[in-house]
Amino acid sequence: MGLFRKKRKPKYVEEVLEFDEAEQKEANLRASENPVQKRKNPAMEFCSQLLKASKELGEIKRDYRVVTDYLTDIQSIENLPEEEMAEIQEVANHVMTLNASRDAYLNKSKTISDSQYAQMEQLQDQIPDVIKRLKENEAYQTTVKRDMQYLEGEREEWRYYKEAMEQESRLLRKLLVGLAGVGIAVILLIFVLGYTMHFDVRTPFLTAVIVAGAVEGLLVVRLQNDMADIKKSNANINRAIMLLNKISFKYVNVTNAVDYICEKYHVKNSYELNYVWEQYLEAAQEREKYEKTNDDLEYFNNKLIRLLHSYHLYDAKIWIYQPQALLDKKEMVEVKHELVVRRQKLRSSMEAQVANIQKAKAQIQKLVKAHPGNEKEIKEILDALDKECGLTA
């Protein structure tokens, strides 16, 4: 409601313009203190206030006439034949429905920012390919990263194996040296015992030589195997490092490509970019629908104005802002009630303002009698005021 009000609301002066004896004495005092004001009738000082009150009365009257014209429009609409009213209501229903659709779009929360929408709109021909390429790069990045992790694990396994073989080979060398010393000591012991005890040392000697030779041979074979394993470990470690360097280069390249696209479109991954793209498509569709709604709304607004204008209403355009009043009698009753109440207040304001002006005129006439001078000018002002306000002297 309230659409029938004008944008500028006049300030109504309802105070009683009374000039009592104290005000008259103050005016006389100012006149006595200022020689220039001695020659001016004190009543002239109050004429400007009276003219201001008259101007405000004119504004109240204009508002009163406007409200009356709106009430007349409502009466004209209510008296229309049913067939003509049905046509108006059909158009008004379109206006109300389209307004609701437009308001729903405007009140809908945004799923993407305006900058994202503008970027998607500008590059919409490229976005599907960009999403596809980003997904492929992310999949390749995942594969390369998995290969890197595998090669790093293999490198570390060979490194641990190499360290174990190196540790074992060092131990075997020490055992070889130790067994050689023990073998020599045993052989010497056999010769010493054979010489002192006078027995045949050939059998113990051969036994000791065979046992020592066998143990030493086994240790040497194991040491040679360890050295071969160490060599193999170094080769595998170098191969893993070479492959890791090659794959790391690929990983850096694909990661840079992924990061560039994500930074360009302000997303974290292809899923988010795809989400933004889908939201853009939905928003673009909604915006297209909104623009069509605006076009349709403009068409039906103009049609409603033309229909109502054909009945010579005071303001046919006002009804496009409250079409529900044309569709619902209760709404129209509320509009009419508001206007009636407002007109009553304006009438009361006019009556109070007219009474104030009449009282002010009486006060001015008293001042004119008490302070002769400028009678002609004051009379012209009062006559003009009577003519404008419709008052009698």
Which class best fits the helix and strand makeup?
mainly alpha
**CATH 4th-level superfamily of the largest domain:** Helix Hairpins
Net shape: rod-shaped
Q: How many discrete domains? A: 2
What is the H-and-E element order?
HHHHHHHHHHH
CATH class of the largest domain: Mainly Alpha
Number of helices: 11
Task: Please mark out the parts with pLDDT under 50 across 5 or more consecutive residues, or reply none.
Answer: 6-25, 27-39
Can you offer a commentary on this structure?
The radius of gyration is 55 Å and the shape is rod-shaped. Helix 3 packs antiparallel against helix 10 and helix 6 runs antiparallel to helix 7 (202-264). The chain is built from eleven helices and no strands. The chain is 82% helix and 0% strand.
